[in-house]
Amino acid sequence: MGNRLKSYGEHRTQLRVKENKRVLWRLKEDSSQGGEGLVRNISLSGMLMETDCMLSPKEADTFAFDSPVGTQNGFIPRGRVVWKGEKGFLRKKYLYGIKFVEPDEEVFDNLDQRVQVGIGKLTNKRRWDKVARILLLFLILGLTGYSLWMGSTVYKDMDHSTKSMLDVSNDQAELTRNYKSLQQKTFGELTVARQELVETQELYKEGQRILQGVSKDLDEARAAMAQTDALLVQMQNENGALKGEIKALKDFHMKELAEVKADLNNTIDLLQKKNIKLVGEMNHLQSQMDYYGGDVQNMQESKALLRLYRNRMKLAKSKVKHFKREARRVRKTALKERDRLQSLLGNNGYFMKDGQVVQVDEEKYQMAAEEEEAVSKVSKPTSTRKVNIDVTFVE
User: What are the alphabetically sorted keywords of the record (predicted)?
Assistant: First the structure.
């Protein structure tokens, strides 16, 4: 509310101190008027009193005050009201500005001592307030510095995080490019592997065709040998009428033919066994191809399967070549034996020998000629059979 005057003017130049003491007051001129009040503040020249009573004192009225409860010596002099005021709405309080008049020496000393104590407290309070303000200022400065440092640290962390994110993004892009390049390279290798697998399939088909042709040639050679055997038996039955020289020569040649026949039969049996073994190996290779057909999972397995196919094809081709050489050798031997028999059945270029006309058995010679035609067919390998090979490509 301040020191604004309503009814009277107040001129307190002394420093005020808070008191908040309850006192009893009364009018010196009329002792019947009195009551209880609260001293809000006090100085050497006056005080501010709060009470529940509304007074209209005259300018010459003087107020007397009793000492507050808990004090031994009185320190409030007499005084008169110089201004008044109100506060509150529902429960009103009345404020009165009291100016001290003619204080006693002892009361004034007590008042001065009281005021000095209050001034000391106020000074200490102001000093502590100043220290608190300085500490608060330093605290604010410290918090400001800490905030600036924290902001700088956060900015650095954000900058570092941004750079890290950019680095990670670049690494991710590099990984993506590398993955794409590796994927293209892998697709290229898979294409090459597929081409090699197709070539291996063609080689396998060719091997199958060669094997079938060799098997057919072997059957024809065996048929030719059977015909040769029949021809030899017939020659043994019909050569009894020949002369002694021819008989001796025939016996000699028959013995030789028996040895050759036995040798050829053994060779044919051996070739037949080899043929059966080779067919079994080809079937085993076919079963392995069927087995591995659906198990290729990656590039390493496809390459391993290609190497296995190539090795097996090389082995099969080498065996087929060896088998063909053996078949040619048997066929050549059979043809030689056929030629020798024809030379025995023919006239050997003689129309007359030892004064006699050389007789030629045309039926036997014609049979030998038919045998020549059969052997010529054996000498020509055929590969008309079709072989179905089951090869499954796995991507």
Answer: Coiled coil, Membrane, Transmembrane, Transmembrane helix
